[in-house]
Amino acid sequence: KTVKEVYFNNPMWPGETHSLKVENVLFKEKSLYQEVLVFESTSYGKVLVLDGIVQLTEKDECAYQEMISHLPLCSIESPKNVLVVGGGDGGVLREIARHSSVERIDICEIDQMVIDVSKKFFPQLAIGFEDPRVHLHVGDAVEFLRHTSQGKYDAIIVDSSDPVGPAQELVEKPFFETIARALRPGGVLCNMAESMWLHTHLIQDMISICRETFKGSVHYAWANVPTYPSGVIGFLLCSTEGPPVDFKHPINPIEKLEGAIEYKRQLKFYNSEMHRAAFSLPSFVKRERLYD
Ligand SMILES: NCCCCCc1nc2ccccc2[nH]1
Fold first, then answer.
1. Which residue among 8, 10, 12, 114 is best mutated to probe the pocket of ligand 1, counting the most ligand atoms within 8 A of its Cβ?
2. Share in percent of the chain as helix, strand, coil (round to 5)
3. Active-site residue 111, yes or no?
4. How far apart are alpha carbons 43 and 21 in whole angstroms?
5. 110-159 tens-digit pLDDT
6. How far is residue 31 CA from its own chain's centroid?
7. Which residues contact 176 (CB under 8 A, 6 or more apart)?
8. Which of 175, 190, 215, 275 lies at a C-alpha separation of 20 to 30 Å from 245?
9. What DSSP state is assigned to residue 169?
10. Interface predicted TM-score (ipTM)
């Protein structure tokens, strides 16, 4: 049988092509916001693609979901109220649920199709929606945060797609200002922050905006995700003015929580050593001139 390949060309990585062999296409439709594709790959399990960009694969989603969730939550004493922006696949919800101190998890995902597709094809991620602490809001996070009371959240996790298309406004200053307002003093934000190899200008702009908007600390961390072009993805960790947050040394180590894990599923990627290591940066990034 003719086995197809899918070629990932995108302005997010000009002049570069990534490809995965398609064993079979499981879903392909246009939602109100983007094209949603699910296919069975040869060696990464099922793959979720939005507008031609790989969002997750069954094999390596653990790296992204665990890091984006535990880098912020393990940096504060006892997270109670958490907001997820995006994250409609449910993977971040699954990870937040490991924290027994958490009492409420709000999630604002704009695209219902992403949620439905995840529940159908990625049950090991969509399990996150089953936690009774989860409250789902389908809609625009900019609108949602505009109506959120001041200082409501201990942590906000922005698990967005790339700032081309529906997520464009999630990297603009007004949005970060609504996030800062929705966080309590000493509250933390973790934002998906692209690739240090590919998006130096975008990262620099995000860091500048966050330095102005968050009066606590702002740090860049990263993780290796093989199916993301350039093999790495970054995270921007910010804290609001108030009790200082030391992102580089988790005061709420996940190992303390190990026993509290609801699911039999063990952590596959994150641990306190990986947490500390994530903030170790190449010299060209440390210099903060990510391009020169
Ligand atoms: N919402 C899940 C993660 C989304 C990140 C997707 C992604 N990963 C990338 C790697 C290199 C260039 C652009 C990228 N965009």
1. 12
2. 30, 30, 40
3. no
4. 9
5. 999 999 999 999 999 999 999 999 999 999 999 999 999 999 999 999 99
6. 21
7. 189, 209, 210, 213, 214
8. 175
9. G
10. 0.92
